[in-house]
Every structure is written in C-alpha cells, then in structure tokens.
Write a structure and sequence with these properties.
single chain, mainly beta, four-stranded antiparallel sheet
Length: 123
C-alpha cells in the first residue's frame, strides 16, 4: 500500500516556475513507476510526465516537454515535478500517481493517487 501527498502548488505569474513534490509512504515506493497528471476545470484529466522506478526512464506530454522535469529521490520517498516557463494553460489540479509496472501515460493503469495540489498561472 502506498499513500501519496502532493505539495507545492500555488499562484504564479506566467513565465514563472514551481516545483511540486509528492511524498509517498510505504516501503515499496522505490519499486513503483510514478506519474504526474493534471485536471483543469471542465476538462478531462491529462497525463503530464512519468518516471520509472530507477529514474532512468522519463516520459513527457508534448505540451510540457522542454519546460517540465520529473525526478525522484527514492531515499526520501519523493517524486518531484519542476515546472518552468509556466503558461496560463498549465492551470490545473496536479495529481501524482504510482503503479507497480513501467511508465505509462494512461491514468487507469495507476494504482495509487494523491489528493492533488492546485497550480494557478496568471497571465
């Protein structure tokens, strides 16, 4: 069992940066692939980024490639999402998720989800 708690979301101006964190409980965190997803008001949840259990494989949505970086520290049971050059269209609730297999951009393949953290980018 893994419990996930996101933090770091806040109001930021366009062009700014934020780093989201997702702290995991449970001994098996280091064996899980982790992902970040987001959901804007009135829109479906969408994939943002994912990272393999070792950190050796990362995968990004085209909309964030080159601006966002996913990373993890298995010693701290934490996964991060560094977001640079933020745009108003990045405004959403951001969720981290974990799964016992490889990286995936499919939300339904993830077993564990956090409660989300709000990111608001003003223009």
């Amino acid at each position: 069992q893994v419990q996930l708690v996101e933090s770091g979301g806040e109001l930021v101006q366009a062009g700014g940066s934020l780093r989201l964190s997702c702290a995991a409980s449970g001994r098996t965190f280091s064996s899980y692939a982790m992902g970040w997803f987001r959901q804007a008001p009135g829109k479906e949840r969408e994939f943002v980024a994912a990272i393999s259990w070792s950190g050796g494989i990362t995968y990004y949505a085209d909309s964030v490639k080159g601006r966002f970086t996913i990373s993890r520290d298995n010693a701290k049971n934490t996964v991060y999402l560094q977001m640079n050059s933020l745009k108003p269209e990045d405004t959403a609730v951001y969720y981290c998720a974990g799964r016992g297999g490889g990286v995936s951009d499919r939300g339904e393949r993830y077993d564990y989800w956090g409660q989300g953290t709000q990111v608001t980018v003003s223009s």
